[in-house]
Amino acid sequence: MSSSKDKIPKRCSKFDEDGNELRRGPWTLEEDNVLIGHISSHGEGQWNSLAKSAGLKRTGKSCRLRWLNYLKPDIKRGNLSPQEQLLILELHSRWGNRWSKIAEQLPGRTDNEIKNYWRTRVQKQARQLKLDCNSTKFLEAVRLYWMPRLLEKMEQHKSPSSQTPNLAPSHNPFLPDMEIISTSHLSFDGYGMQESDCHAADVDWFGEEIGMTSFWNSDELWQFRKVDQCVD
DNA sequence: AAGTCACCCAACCGCGTCTCT
DNA sequence: TAGAGACGCGGTTGGGTGACT
């Protein structure tokens, strides 16, 4: 990251109300250090005045965003776990595009990250199905197939050290729904489908497995339509 | 090796809401 | 109560990078 950050941003001309030039674009390592240092000694909040008093040629907005989405110490980096993906799917079906609200349920994850995940991964699948990602049909597909597979994946990778977001009964207010999801295996069978029908063993749900760029290849699409017909 | 394409994600923007005076 | 400024959210953009040809 630091390599790109050290470059001069191309989009960088803007002025504050005092006529001082404001920087835009990627943050440099130096700027990051200034912001971190200033927040550690003065605390966060009052972003506009913070930006000025820290001597950063950035808007308060930009400082806030940089801190919340990247510099804050408790931010988790790396791929979303199956547990996290499952929680996102469930919470999105409940709350829609309320990214910040969804992010509250995933400690260490930012609304921006979740939003990006949704747009790049989930919406991509919907596009390939030629469905609106908020449509009943797509949500049904997610519920009947994606979620059970995530649960299965969670089971496979269960280990004492695995990071688990708010899924434990004592912490998760949505447990009843999670139980519904887990029983959707039954719903799956109820539509007369075997999991093997869907080539599940080769499926790449998260872009992380064998040679497939996307889960919803034509076979799975066909299988989905099979489900779809039953749903209708 | 070079060019092109697609994906990912950090950062920006606009706008609605909140808070303070 | 109204106005102004700060804050937060969701949508969008653009650059970097890796895969593919």
From TrEMBL:
<dbReference type="Pfam" id="PF00249">
    <property type="entry name" value="Myb_DNA-binding"/>
</dbReference>
<dbReference type="GO" id="GO:0043565">
    <property type="term" value="F:sequence-specific DNA binding"/>
</dbReference>
<dbReference type="InterPro" id="IPR009057">
    <property type="entry name" value="Homeodomain-like_sf"/>
</dbReference>
<keyword id="KW-0805">Transcription regulation</keyword>
<keyword id="KW-0539">Nucleus</keyword>
<dbReference type="InterPro" id="IPR017930">
    <property type="entry name" value="Myb_dom"/>
</dbReference>
<feature type="domain" description="HTH myb-type">
    <location>
        <begin position="72"/>
        <end position="126"/>
    </location>
</feature>
<feature type="domain" description="Myb-like">
    <location>
        <begin position="72"/>
        <end position="122"/>
    </location>
</feature>
<keyword id="KW-0238">DNA-binding</keyword>
<dbReference type="InterPro" id="IPR001005">
    <property type="entry name" value="SANT/Myb"/>
</dbReference>
<protein>
    <submittedName>
        <fullName>MYB-related transcription factor</fullName>
    </submittedName>
</protein>
<feature type="domain" description="Myb-like">
    <location>
        <begin position="19"/>
        <end position="71"/>
    </location>
</feature>
<keyword id="KW-0677">Repeat</keyword>
<feature type="domain" description="HTH myb-type">
    <location>
        <begin position="19"/>
        <end position="71"/>
    </location>
</feature>
<keyword id="KW-0804">Transcription</keyword>
<dbReference type="GO" id="GO:0005634">
    <property type="term" value="C:nucleus"/>
</dbReference>
<dbReference type="GO" id="GO:0003700">
    <property type="term" value="F:DNA-binding transcription factor activity"/>
</dbReference>
<dbReference type="InterPro" id="IPR044676">
    <property type="entry name" value="EOBI/EOBII-like_plant"/>
</dbReference>
